[in-house]
Amino acid sequence: MTPREKIVQQIREHGPIPFSRYMEMCLYDPEHGYYSRSSEQFGKAGDFYTSSDVHAVFGRLLARQFEEMWRVLGSPAQIKILELGPGRGLFAQDVLDWSEKKFPEFFQAVHYSLAESSPALRERLQGTLSKHFRSGKASLAQWPDPSPAGGSSSAAGAVPFHDRGPISDVTLEATRKGTTLESVSQLKVSGRGGRDTPRISREAAPECSPPREPWVKGGNGQAPKERKISCGTDSLAPEAPVIIFANEFFDALPAEIVSEQGALRIYEKDGRFVETWSAPSARELEFLDRYGVHPDNGERIEVPLVAQQYMSSVAQTIQQGFMVIVDYGYTRQEQLAGRHRGTLMTYRQHSSSANPYEAPGEQDITAHVNFTALAASAEQNGMQGQPLLTQSQFLLGIGEANQFADAFEECRLPQERAKVALQLKHLITPAGMGETLHVLVGSKAIAPDRMVKLSGLSFGRDHC
Fold first, then answer.
1. Is-contact 423 54, C-beta < 8 A?
2. Which residues pair with 82 in a beta bridge?
3. Distance between CA atoms of 331 and 315, rounded to whole angstroms?
4. Which of 47, 97, 291, 451 is buried deepest, with most CB atoms within 10 A?
5. Ordered structural domains, the chain, with CATH
6. Distance CA 248, CA 30 (A)
């Protein structure tokens, strides 16, 4: 049964469904959802790419930032990096390989945990990171599952995400103690990094930067399955600090849509999906009151309640450490100024569309991240947030001290440096990805005066 057929069946059995439920089934159906299909959507003929696919320097710069975070924490004997939506593991590979080469003390302390739910991508992760899996430096991890009892959230009649209670406390203690369940309800799916920009990727990289297949998104998602995996357990102490990293994770979590007419519902008529509206819930209205704007003039505004749940889980599970969130998004002030008032889009083969009903299960569906709401949710759960930065500011802060030697170190010929410079420019400049992606950094149980030691925060602070 195709995603369309499953959606129609659920509508006929249960009536009109919230848009978040429609989006969830299109993307995460365990058999035919967009992120559960074969990896045909990845690669040159795919739909998207992320910063890690442009050049290895993205991971190398973050490795430098993670090492600084480790030192801010007092250089503990153990530290965990938990990446949400690692995809094929290009970012993890760059972080671990560069740390091993440049930061051996940090590398000795770190364990890299990967929350990826796609079976095909889990297999690729173990290939990409085979050396680090064998050594025990990397492992697959569990992430909180918002579906009841860890079951499939795409089954007909399942409770929509926004109607469920708080995410069950499957915390980092599980992964700290060596749990490596395969039932990861990971839900990372975005990564339209170059939808409006030139196709600059690792494929064009010179010999000094080994080419990789371009246009691959940062992650994937599938409804959880109750199977265990046997590779890459870790033995970190429960009190080990944690760095949680998410690159284009939150922008593809299922979202509600609200207009002047109410909350969007989907039903089926004569073989077509038709929109209708119902009274918005108290939670939806409260979200708009606190973090967004109420729609007018025919506008549609996303209400990302699921993203709020996930951020709460992220913040709750950190006893001490950091989070680094990289994504497309906006603040409430930008919405009040009339921008980002309706950002739902679909992507297929590097082409964008505003029609989410065109090809259920065959196209990406995303909505930009409300960073005001994410930051508030993190702070409500004990995190201390930093001012929002652009990816340009963040990477420039890390790289300007050594003039981005991490990118050019292995280049020998002028033409090699020229190619790498073009890739670096794509990551940093407004014409590329530098101003469209934003970075939210948070910390817990770390003195504020220690945060000034992080170079990634320095550019926005020193160039105001």
1. yes
2. 113, 244
3. 19
4. 47
5. 3-459 (3.40.50.12710)
6. 21
